[in-house]
């Protein structure tokens, strides 16, 4: 599949003209305003099922015909949605099985969205049927750019159909052998050996919820059910419009589905980006967002992604929905492009007149005209993006990677022990990522089963679970000259959450790191243990591993508690590479000091030839370098070489970036 689907950065967003069917004259006004806002695309039909199929088997596409024609006439692309995210009332009334059953065993009533059973044959058939009609009608339409499948797939269903499907899934995975399952789930514990597949059901608060292997199996099953639901949705689209790419909009670091497993089924990854720009630390918000961009970019091995939604002003679902400072939405747009997005899209184009989301930010608000601050700022973003055709399809080559694995995040959440509070797997990964991001070093955020051979540095924070040959991949990576960093919890369990025997970390990794982890001390919030490293003292928090070296060099020591003198930072030469172990949860100061020497040893260079002031972040993608000021003040940047300003064509040796300003350099 190609890297580029359109020659320009897509600028547009969710467009729900179906909500305005009673005042259709507004549609022409929408087109006029879209032209003014430099909008080149609209995502249509996401929640339109009750209009297109008002009664079972009765279809009315006349409204969508008109919209598709209008978009085509105005030279705009349509990202056309399948409507499975929300169903019409008649469907649930006639076929109650399409509604979700909660963990309590009680079936939901009709309402909200995302309230469907993933297994229900009726729902799958109805979805396939309407999708077929959409593909028949619009699959070759000149305006059609892409299929947008459903909306933010999420949740799970515990109905009898799903329980049956779960058991069938387990039978397949465990070779129809209950003994195998009993062993892998360690069911001798609390006398849980199953003798009949029907004794197994989904994890529930009032049922089984203390078997981590069951919880892992259920999440894996739910992921596979989503994938097969998705494949069912796209079957008619693939058949009738084989050249039109498909995507589905994903949600940040949502862990209900393994996004890393879903990604290969999509032609292009897209996600909905709603950073909290009103949080006190803008740079932290920017880092969280950058991390997620890089996680999605890495899901398709660096291929550009779409930012399918963002808000041009506010959201309506936080407890308090403050306005982001002017300039920040534009900076967020540039940040997305810098990290690999080929689109800047909003939720939504025109604010709904009623309903739950009427006070959500939109490009066109209830006033309805173009002379608003938000409209003008959005139009300015659109005009700017029109000058960025050179960005489209560009890639970023990263020599550094942080392993941040969805299944590992589940396993880290599920085990009982050490510290039960304050586990923040993604946060721990982000801490390490941040040190590289601030230094302008491009970094991939990858699942554990990724080929590591292209990287020089791999950081594996809290890599508790190892699966699918990860142990060997990490060992060969180091042996072949890579630099590997691990932290507490490293290599404790296999994919079933069974502990490795014979000492941690698993198997060969003890040789790779030249040590064995014997015990782990957990610290309450606020307590730290001093660590001496490179003649300075740092604070170890949360977890401290007591290591028994068998060849590893001690680079830093604990200086407190009964394990003072015990190694806190080690390095071990293995093959042509080095494996470092940081035996505690470090703070940013330690990570900065520790990585600085490693980075310079590896010859890593910042993406930009400049010493970046605090709060200024650079990212190179393709031929362009984006320098972004996340400070709420003017910030001067001096460069070591002369760049060309991509927008003005003028030479640049220094730049005074206004608050939340940026410059794009070639
Ligand atoms: C997204 C969703 C949209 C809209 C938006 C509001 O998560 O896909 O349909 O609800 O949130 O922020």
What labels would you give this structure?
single chain, 666 residues, alpha/beta, eleven-stranded mixed beta sheet, 17 helices, 20% strand, binds beta-D-galactopyranose
Rg estimate, integer Å: 26 Å
Bound molecules: beta-D-galactopyranose
Strand content: 15-25%
The overall pLDDT average reads 97
Count of β-strands: 25
Give the proportion of residues in helices.
Answer: 25-40%
Taking pLDDT < 50 over at least 5 consecutive residues as the criterion, the unreliable ranges are none
Overview of this protein structure:
The protein has 666 residues and is of the alpha/beta class. The protein contains 17 helices and 25 strands. The relative contact order is 0.09. The strands form four sheets. Strands 10, 11, 12, 13, 14, 15, 16, 17, 18, 19 and 20 form an eleven-stranded mixed beta sheet that branches. Strands 5-4-3-2-1-9-8-7-6 form a nine-stranded parallel beta sheet, with helices on one face. A three-stranded antiparallel beta sheet has the order 21-22-25, with helices on one face. The longest helix has 29 residues. α8 packs antiparallel against α13 and α14 crosses α17. Helices cover 30% and strands 20% of the residues. The site of beta-D-galactopyranose has 10 residues, from loops.
Summarize the structure.
The protein is about 30% helix and about 20% strand.
What is this structure's SSE topology?
Layout: E1 10-15, H1 25-36, E2 41-44, H2 49-52, H3 62-73, E3 77-81, H4 89-94, H5 121-138, E4 144-148, H6 160-173, H7 178-184, H8 212-240, E5 246-247, E6 249-250, H9 259-262, E7 270-272, H10 282-299, E8 305-309, H11 328-338, E9 341-346, H12 373-385, E10 400-403, H13 406-414, H14 425-438, E11 443-446, E12 457-460, H15 470-479, E13 483-486, H16 509-513, E14 515-522, E15 529-533, E16 536-549, E17 553-558, E18 567-574, E19 577-582, E20 584-585, H17 588-602, E21 616-621, E22 624-629, E23 635-644, E24 651-657, E25 662-665
The chain binds beta-D-galactopyranose.
């Amino acid at each position: 599949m190609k890297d580029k689907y359109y020659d320009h950065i897509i600028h547009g967003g969710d467009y729900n003209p179906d909500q305005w069917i009673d005042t259709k004259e507004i549609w022409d006004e929408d087109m006029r305003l879209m032209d003014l806002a430099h909008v080149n695309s609209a995502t249509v039909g996401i929640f339109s099922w009750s209009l297109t199929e008002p009664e079972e088997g009765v279809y009315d596409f006349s409204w969508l015909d008109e919209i598709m024609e209008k978009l085509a006439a105005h030279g705009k692309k349509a990202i056309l949605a399948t409507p499975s995210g929300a169903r019409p009332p008649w469907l649930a009334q006639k076929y109650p099985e399409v509604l979700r059953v909660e963990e309590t065993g009680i079936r939901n009533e009709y309402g909200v969205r995302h309230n469907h059973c993933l297994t229900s044959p009726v729902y799958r058939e109805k979805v396939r049927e309407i999708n077929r009609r959409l593909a028949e009608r619009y699959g070759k339409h000149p305006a059609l750019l892409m299929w947008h499948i459903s909306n933010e797939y999420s949740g799970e269903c515990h109905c009898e159909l799903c329980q049956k499907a779960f058991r069938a899934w387990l039978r397949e995975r465990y070779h129809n052998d209950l003994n195998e399952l009993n062993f892998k789930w360690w069911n001798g514990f609390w006398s849980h050996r199953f003798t009949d597949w029907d004794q197994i059901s989904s994890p529930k608060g009032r049922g089984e919820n203390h078997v981590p292997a069951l919880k892992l199996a259920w999440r894996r099953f739910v992921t596979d059910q989503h994938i097969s639901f998705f494949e069912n949705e796209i079957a008619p689209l693939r058949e009738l419009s084989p050249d039109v790419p498909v995507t589905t909009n994903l949600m940040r670091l949502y862990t209900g589905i393994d996004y890393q497993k879903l990604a290969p089924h999509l032609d292009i990854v897209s996600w909905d980006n709603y950073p909290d720009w009103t949080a006190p630390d803008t740079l932290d918000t920017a880092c969280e967002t950058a991390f997620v961009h890089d996680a999605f970019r890495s899901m398709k091995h660096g291929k550009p992604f779409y930012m399918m939604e963002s808000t041009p002003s506010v959201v309506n679902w936080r407890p308090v929905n403050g306005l982001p400072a002017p300039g920040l939405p534009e900076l967020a747009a540039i940040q997305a492009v810098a990290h690999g997005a080929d689109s800047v899209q909003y939720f939504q184009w025109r604010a709904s007149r009623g309903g739950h989301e009427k006070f959500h930010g939109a490009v066109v608000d209830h006033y309805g005209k173009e002379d608003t601050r938000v409209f003008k700022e959005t139009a300015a973003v659109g005009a700017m993006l029109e000058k960025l055709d050179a960005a489209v399809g560009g890639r970023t080559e990263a020599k550094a990677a942080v392993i941040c694995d969805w299944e590992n995040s589940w396993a880290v959440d599920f085990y009982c022990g050490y510290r039960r509070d304050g586990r923040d797997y993604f946060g721990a990964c982000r801490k390490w990522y941040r040190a590289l991001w601030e230094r302008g070093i491009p970094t991939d955020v990858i699942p554990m089963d990724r080929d590591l051979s292209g990287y020089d540095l791999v950081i594996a924070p809290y890599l508790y679970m190892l699966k699918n040959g990860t142990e060997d991949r990490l060992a060969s990576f180091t042996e072949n000259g890579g630099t590997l960093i691990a932290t507490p919890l490293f290599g404790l369990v296999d994919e079933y959450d069974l502990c490795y025997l014979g000492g941690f970390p698993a198997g060969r990794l003890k040789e790779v790191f030249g040590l064995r982890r014997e015990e782990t001390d957990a610290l309450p919030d606020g307590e730290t243990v001093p660590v001496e490293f490179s003649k300075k003292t740092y604070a170890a928090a949360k977890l401290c591993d007591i290591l028994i070296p068998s060849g590893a060099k001690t680079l830093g020591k604990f200086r407190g508690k009964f394990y003072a003198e015990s190694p806190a930072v080690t390095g071990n030469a293995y093959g042509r590479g080095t494996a470092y172990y940081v035996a505690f949860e470090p703070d940013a100061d330690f990570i900065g000091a520790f990585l600085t020497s490693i980075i310079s040893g590896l010859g890593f260079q910042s993406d930009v030839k400049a010493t970046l002031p605090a709060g200024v972040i650079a990212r190179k993608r393709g031929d362009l370098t984006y320098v972004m000021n996340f400070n709420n003040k003017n910030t001067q940047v001096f460069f070591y070489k002369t760049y060309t300003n991509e927008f003005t064509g003028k030479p640049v040796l220094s730049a005074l970036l206004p608050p939340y300003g940026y410059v794009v350099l070639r």
